[in-house]
Amino acid sequence: MMRLLSPFSGVMNGKPVFDNTRRLVRLAYRAKYYKKVGFSAVGRIPLLTIARSHFTFLLPESSRPAYLTVEFTNYCNLKCSYCTSPLNLRKRGFMSDETFEVLLHQIKEFDLHRVRIVGNGESTLHPNFAAMVQRLAECCSYLQVVTNGHYLNAQKIGSLLRAPVRLLEVSVDSDNRQGYEGSRIGGNFDRLLTNLRLLKEMRQKLGGPTVVNIRVMIRPSQMTRESEIRNFWSSYADTVMPQYVHDYTRGMDPDVFPHYQVSGLIPRCSVPSKAMTLHWNGTIPLCELSQRQTGMPDG
User: Whole-prediction pTM value?
Assistant: First the structure.
């Protein structure tokens, strides 16, 4: 039987697997997630744009990216053991009002449909988070937000649901306090669960189209318990999607899967034509590794 080192590592039986084959594996493995999220995107994102975000090299080139990723800030309240953010590989800051206004103008000018708020920090730390989410939702047809969930209070949950954010993804680890707080340094497992319960209650009360997805990080040591871990989080969200922890910190965390780019394998890069990332200060990285701040500080 063919076996992946991790389902999306780009390596199968010791050989590199790239582009469309790896994408098909991902689509099949996350079928439930894509079915739920895909339904929410129907009529809001053109079908050709959705297809282009998955099969970049099978379709004609486009004059615009399939989606835009926006980083409100690269400050974070957590120091996850496998994340490059704690390494301080680039200057930290918050997106300015001036940069945000230019962003809104260009989203409208280029008629971008899908915008995803994430980055190398925690977006809810931005002091103008609620207002920025509202304005982005007004100028694009499909808005996504990724958060670690620690600042999901009633005010911010209300702003997300009323915007509305079409897809809200909460990134988590493990299924218990020891595992979670051991990976997410500075995190509070009980606080996260309290916030997720509040999110569920407020969504039931306010209604709206927001789909909630839990992105649970899975390590090699957790593969035998993956179903159990996913089941734990299933009561807090519409879908639970595994995200396999890859080696972006070059050996600082040993319990991770090898990443095909860091491992020296060089696939065709689809990022520039598939997704564009905007950093908090207005800069745009052209490759996935620079986007993730992969590497180690100089000196």
Answer: 0.85
